[in-house]
Every structure is written in C-alpha cells, then in structure tokens.
Design brief:
This protein has 336 residues and is of the alpha/beta class. It has twelve helices and twelve strands. The longest helix is centred in the N-terminal third of the chain and has 20 residues. Its cofactor is NAD(+).
Length: 336
C-alpha cells in the first residue's frame, strides 16, 4: 500500500510513519510537511535512507504542490495529520490555523477527488465537540468548538463530511483525545512540564483551570487506532479515539513531579487560558467494536514518556531556543 501522510514531521505523524513502516515491510510512505516551527526532520531522521520512505517539503494549502505530489506518488490512501495544533498559539494568532486546518484540508480533498484516491483519513480532535462537565461525546454529538484552533479543525471536518455527502469522496473522520509520548513538541502540558522540570524551571499551571480534565492516550495506541481504521474503517464514517483515562491538570502535574522527584514548589500558577475548556471525554465504543483497544496503561505510558525525554535531552533542548522563549514571554505578558 502507498500512503501519503501530511504532517509526518510533527509529533503524531512521525510516530505513525515509523509505526506502519515497521509493521508492514511492503508499504511505501510519502511524508508531505511544511516544516513549521512544530515540524522537525529530526523526528524522522532514522527513516532517511529507507527506500520505502520519501519526504517532500510542502504546504497542504498549496494547490499545485499537493496535486503534483499526489499525481506523481499515486497513493492508495491520504492521511491528513498536518495542522496548526496548539490552542494557546491559536488564541494569540488564529490566521495560520484557518489557512492550514480549513483551506489545507479542502485542498487535499480536491486532490483526492481529482486523482481518485481510494481512502482519505482526517485526523481530528475531541475539541470540536466542545467542553462538557459530565458524560461523553459520541460520534453523533454536535460540534461546539471554543478556540480558534478547535473552530478551524471543525471547519476542516465539516468540509470532509461535505465531500462524502456531496461527491461520495471516500473519507473517514477521526476524533481523538489528548495524545502524549515521544517527539511531542515541548509546548503541550506533558512535554512542556517534563522538560521544564528537567531544566530546573517552574511549570506554568493555568490558575482557575488546574482542576480542568483531559482524557489522555499514548501516541502508540493512537497509531494502532489509525492503522486499524486505515484497514477496517468504512468510508463516510466517523470514529472517536479515546482511552478512558481522565485526569485533572493538577493531578497530572503532581504525578509528573513525583516521577521526576521534584517538589510542589515547582508549580507556578499563571493566568488562565481565555475560553479554557473544562473537560473533554469520548465514547469510543464504535472503534472498540471494530476491534481496536488501547494497550498501554496511563501510568506505564507516562513513566515511559518521562524516560524518553530524559534520554533525548539534545532533541528538546534544541527546540527550546530563543524563539521559543520569546513566544512564551510574549504570551504571558499579553495575558497579564
Ligand atoms: P504537531 O503540531 O506536532 O505537528 C503538526 C505537523 O504539521 C508539523 O510537522 C507541521 O510542520 C505540519 N504542518 C503544519 N502546517 C502545515 C501545512 N500547511 N502543510 C503541511 N504541513 C503542515 O501536531 P500533532 O500533535 O502531531 O497533531 C497531529 C494531528 O492530530 C493534528 O491534525 C491535530 O489537530 C490532531 N490531534 C492532535 C492531538 C494531540 O493531542 N496532539 C489530539 C487529537 C488530534
Ligand atoms: O484534546 C485534543 C487536543 O489536545 C488536540 O486537538 C490539540 O492539538 C492538543 O494541543 C491538545 O489541546 P489541549 O489544549 O487539551 O492541550 P494542552 O497540552 O495545551 O493543555 C492541556 C491542559 O493543560 C489544558 O487544560 C490547559 C493546561 N495547561 C496547558 C499548558 C500548555 C496548563 O495549565 N499550562 C500550560 O502551560
């Protein structure tokens, strides 16, 4: 099978490429990635030289680049991981989110239609359903996004569904809960807090949002879910990908502090995220009935992740550079 993967230099895309090339010796992958601040060729360095793997630097919103790449590679499937993904950055500067997550998704859909690609999988998020104090979102729940990030993802997802209803384009949508694990850019809570603690810095916990809940899945279990959907999912369908492992931000923070032998004085309460969603939670029975289930326990996966960051200091230290520091300072200054 030939698989065209967008955003494969990011966190989840790079894990997925390594996963499917490892599992299927006969598969070929084209990684199409713009290499934004979050895209990093170090994440796929070990795949260079593998004859089954190729990389093209390109923007999913660039019609010509997308069509040329799909026409030449002739994929059996396109999996769209590419996106602007960080909620805080979307609050700060929404424009790139709209271009990539909406126009980029539309551009890929057009190419899929024109070149009759047999499968398109949209990697999306539980955030499109909005926040809920209790209960779980099913695939039938309506969209109620809060941030410019989730609104952009919802826009892209609606377009994906429209291509199924209007053109019978062979699409599948997925909505996942929060991922964590190796190669996550150190701006999300788990990767930021682990690396800050290792650097001897404080961890910025959003005050007022410290009891907010997230459902967490280890990225390898997400890879296995997408692999399962790629092979057994049905066109036109939507699948939630959830682990059932929910934890409040404050409890997650304390768990990380324990794993890294740091005290609670490391916690620094900072201004809350505007429009901060309290809780996301997914009913993922539909995918479980199709035959997938997560393998990792949250405790084991979190400990594994901490060990990975400890062993890959050079990788994340390079990313926490001057631009990174400038962005963080500016973000908190603006919120004061
Ligand atoms: P990431 O920010 O680590 O990586 C995104 C990748 O997309 C980067 O390599 C970047 O260079 C690339 N990219 C961005 N704009 C592009 C463009 N215009 N053209 C081509 N490439 C572009 O993201 P991630 O955390 O790996 O998330 C991957 C996908 O999964 C996203 O669609 C995200 O919305 C979705 N998702 C993420 C999570 C999570 O917890 N991280 C949970 C659910 C869904
Ligand atoms: O739910 C899936 C989504 O998970 C994905 O679609 C997004 O791409 C991904 O970024 C993630 O969004 P969140 O906003 O849930 O993740 P983040 O790690 O940014 O924040 C998790 C929680 O931690 C949230 O309640 C805000 C809080 N937080 C986050 C950061 C970065 C802090 O308290 N301090 C921080 O510095």
């Amino acid at each position: 099978m030939k698989v065209f993967i967008t955003g494969g230099a990011g966190f989840m895309g790079s894990n997925f490429i390594r996963f499917i090339l490892g599992k299927y010796p006969g598969y070929e992958v084209l990684n199409f990635d713009k290499l934004t601040y979050a895209g990093n060729l170090e994440n796929v360095r070990d795949l260079e030289g593998d004859a089954r793997y190729q990389f093209i630097k390109g923007d999913i919103a660039d019609e010509k680049a997308v069509k040329d790449a799909i026409e030449t590679f002739k994929p059996d499937a396109v999996i769209n991981y590419a996106a602007e993904t960080h909620v805080d950055r979307s609050i700060h500067a929404p424009r790139d989110f709209i271009f990539t997550d909406v126009i980029g998704t539309y551009t890929l859909l057009e190419a899929v239609r024109e070149f009759n690609v047999a499968r398109f999988i949209q990697i999306s998020t539980d955030e499109v359903y909005g926040s809920t104090p209790q209960g779980k979102f099913s695939e039938e729940s309506s969209f109620n996004p809060s941030s410019p990030y989730s609104a952009s993802k919802a826009g892209g997802d609606h377009m994906v569904m429209a291509y199924w209803k209007t053109y019978k384009a062979p699409i599948i949508r997925t909505h996942s809960c929060n991922n964590f694990g190796p190669f996550q850019y150190p701006e999300k809570i788990i990767s930021l807090f682990i690396t800050n603690i290792l650097e001897g810095k404080k961890v910025p916990l959003y005050q007022g949002g410290e009891k907010n809940m997230r459902e967490w899945i280890y990225v390898e279990d997400h890879c296995r879910a997408i692999d399962h959907i790629l092979h057994y999912g049905e066109s036109g369908e939507v699948y939630n990908i959830g682990s059932g492992d929910e934890i409040a931000n404050i409890d997650l923070t304390k768990r990380l502090l324990r794993l890294l032998h740091a005290g609670e004085e490391v916690i620094e309460y900072v201004t809350d995220r505007p429009g901060h969603d309290f809780r996301y939670a997914l009913d993922s029975n539909k995918l479980r009935e199709l035959g997938w289930a997560p393998k990792w326990s949250f405790e084991e996966a979190l400990a594994e992740t901490v060990e990975w960051y400890k062993a890959h200091e050079a990788w994340w230290k390079k990313l926490k550079n001057k631009d990174f520091e400038k962005y963080y300072t500016q973000q908190y200054e603006e919120r004061k």
